[in-house]
Amino acid sequence: MATSKITRRRGHIAQILIYLGKLFRMFLFQSDWKVLPMAAIIAGLVSFAVGSNLYKTMEGTLMGAFALSCVCVWNGFFNSIQVICRERAIVKREHRSGLHISAYVAAHMIYQAVLCLLQAIITIIVSSNLGVRMPEKSLITPSPLLDFGITLFLITYCADMLALLISSFSKTTTAAMTIMPFLLIVELLFSGSFFNLPQEAMPLTNLTATKWGLTAMCAQGDYNSLPMISIWNSAFKMKDIEIEGEKPIFEIMHYIETNNMRDDILLETAHYNQKSEFAHDPSVMYRCWGWLIFWTIVYVAIAVLILEFIDKDKR
Q: Cα(2)–Cα(94) distance, rounded to whole angstroms?
């Protein structure tokens, strides 16, 4: 983008439009569109691996929600981790010639929002076609699928803006790509419910998009009303254990199945493993969406602040 063009049109809106045009041209002609088929491939792999029990059992819902949250974070990180650092010299020069940093970041926000929306739609389409069960109940909008799609979008966009922040202060694209795996590990480990963390580490989970995305998906899927099968499956593996020539576990399980009590046992087991944070309640969804939006705004604000001082950067 020529500096003279920016300086002739100093208005924020005009600069946003100029940069949006540049970003969409890069999408078409510099292969930035590749993030979309990548999103489809990742969604397909995850759906094939863990999607069959989503919204069918407690364990399957927790694992599936965690996996989909990770897919969204992965997509968001790859969208923008290099977009600013790869043109840092250009931004510095144009800022000195009249570029408004807020307009520059706003253009990236709009462009990345479009990418994230498309990736959320692609993830839903691919997952549905591969047999992943979609939520049947809505908590906020009239459509369960719309609720689900909004959650996927907000996770992806929050991760995207975090990557944009990293890109705003990274010296090079290599440095940004070096930081990204560390952030991915943090998002995975501090998802809140999937890994057993020390109690003193739990407040850190509030900082991650995975925690709020996972919670929102479990809440919408009515996690607390689903059966729990892990204890039954563990007992089934031990059914042939003999004690004094008898198989008590086998006999108990046979009695339960013969009397059609298995589903009741699974639900009773689940009753003792319910989680209040996954309550099927609109307030839970609003809280999760609110946190995702809050962190998105924080990341953007810090990125703008950092770039406002880009003229002082001696790198």
A: 8
